[in-house]
Amino acid sequence: MKKVFLCLVLALAGCTTAGSSVVSETSSVVEEEVTSEVPEEETVQNNSLSVNGTQLVDQNGNAIQLRGISTHGIGWFPQYVNADLFQYFHDEWQMNVIRLAMYTAESNGYCTDGDQEALKDLVRKGIQYAKEAGMYAIVDWHILSDNNPNMHVEEAKEFFQEIAADYDHVLYEICNEPNGNTSWQDIKTYAEQIIPVIRSKDPDSIILVGTPNWSQYVNEAADDPIKGYENIMYTLHFYAATHKDDLRQKLQYALGKGLPVFVSEYGICDASGNGFIDSEEAEKWVSLLDREKISYIMWNLSNKDESSSILKPSCTNVTNPAVSDLSASGQWLYELLTNHKPVEEHTDKTEDIQEESESVLTWNIRDTWEEEGETVSLYDFTIENLSNDPTEGWQIKIQFSEDFDIKDSWNVEYEVQDKELFLTPVEYNREITAKGSVKDIGIIVKGGGKSDVRLDEPYDN
After folding, report:
1. Catalytic residue among 92, 173, 177, 283
2. How far is residue 363's CA from residue 285's CA, in Å, rounded to a whole number?
3. pLDDT at 44
4. What is the 3-state secondary structure of 83-143?
């Protein structure tokens, strides 16, 4: 029998199409800049917005969607806040919004060791560049490790007091992703202190309020919304490889209760911001959001080496990146916004790759929850044999960024070596039949941080 040949993921030309379950690292792009003709489409200018029922509407009362990109932390990647890039995204990518993500408690965060004046200056520049480009700007108070926004409520008051003004084109996201044990009542208490500060400077602009569990529990906000203010919306965040029907049901419940929802952050990979790209689930999300006219903004604008970044790590262009500079996520977003699929180079090279790649691993984090202050993640794996012969033996290697514990596993043996986890078959799923697959392999991990998952050297007893 053949051994399983190494392959993390394989896609020839379909990494951005609905139904694709693997990420392309092999297809090449011949365009040097994103200048191809795209269908004419009405441009949303940055005039004043308001909320009508569940819907975001323009100054004429017409329902609109904002679609664009979120920066990564501007304290880490300030180079992407520039006028040329914003104009380029508006003109060539048909974006109408950019989110300015300013971390509050991470390294170089506003409330920790960051230069507050420099960060505020960068936010103001981003607001101005967006206006000049004809786009909306979201000022994002990006809480994360400071999981309860009340931890830094005084700093938030000071920040929004200085940043807010009577803008037509600015939205204020006042708490990115409340998490841990933060309740909806905690968030309401915070929001009811911040909203009046913004309203004293900007009486009408849209204010986005985060929801519990990393901005997922919009159903809780729907059962007890904030009273006494207009033009308030509630954020939902999703990552397509992790968040599926259950979260879409929460969204539909909230809409049914009349809650105006804004997707201020999403990715097409898993919730870590890395890992497997699930185009099929991403298309389900987009279909629902488009049907309901809900705005959505992708994470993230950077060249960080992770799946959610829209630029490859090798890309140093910060004003007009070429299609060949885009990651799989970036190409997916470009096609979505412009309805234009990059031209691909058809050579014998891809055929050679297909012949060599006999097995494909797909995986996702199917669910996450909190236990004792740590994130617990449920991983699900499938290995597919692409060859016409049976394969024997396989091994999955997972590299974690932090210490972890295995709480449960099924249909797999495992071995822990420091921050690495090796998964190997049990007797009944060691062999994979020709054109067959092994499914229902799972583990539950407590902690671990970010994970890098791949097929390793074939396992052999």
Report:
1. 177
2. 19
3. 55
4. HHHHHHHHHHHCCCEEEEEEECCCCCCCCCCCCHHHHHHHHHHHHHHHHHHCCEEEEEEEC
Is 371 one of the catalytic residues? no
Structural domain ending residue among the three candidates 274, 306, 338: 338
CATH classification at residue 193: 3.20.20.80
How far apart, in whole angstroms, are the C-alpha atoms of residue 187 and residue 172?
15
41 in a structural domain: no
- Identify the band that residue 388 occupies on the pLDDT scale cut at 50, 70 and 90: confident
Number of neighbours of residue 372 by Cβ within 10 angstroms: 7
| 461 in any annotated domain | no
Q: Does the annotation count 177 as an active-site position?
A: yes
The whole model's pTM is what?
0.68
CB 406 within 8 A of CB 416: yes
Determine how many CB atoms are found less than 10 A away from the CB of residue 271: 23
Q: Residue 353's domain is classified under what CATH number?
A: 2.60.40.290
Q: Are 100 and 107 a contacting pair, CB within 8 Å?
A: no
- Supply angle C-alpha 443, 448, 451, rounded to 5: 80
Confidence of residue 380 (pLDDT cuts 50, 70, 90): confident
Based on the fold, state whether residues 325 and 356 are members of the same structural domain: no
Given 265, 306, 358, 384, which residue is catalytic? 265
> Which range of residues forms the domain containing residue 407?
348-455
| Tens of pLDDT, residues 306-332 | 999 999 999 999 999 999 999 999 999
Dihedral of the alpha carbons of 367, 369, 375, 379, in degrees to the nearest 10: -20
Task: Give the torsion sign (CA, 107, 143, 297, 375).
Answer: positive
Q: How far apart are CA 350 and CA 5, in angstroms?
A: 16
**pLDDT in the model for residue 342:** 41
231, 207 contact by CB (below 8 A): yes
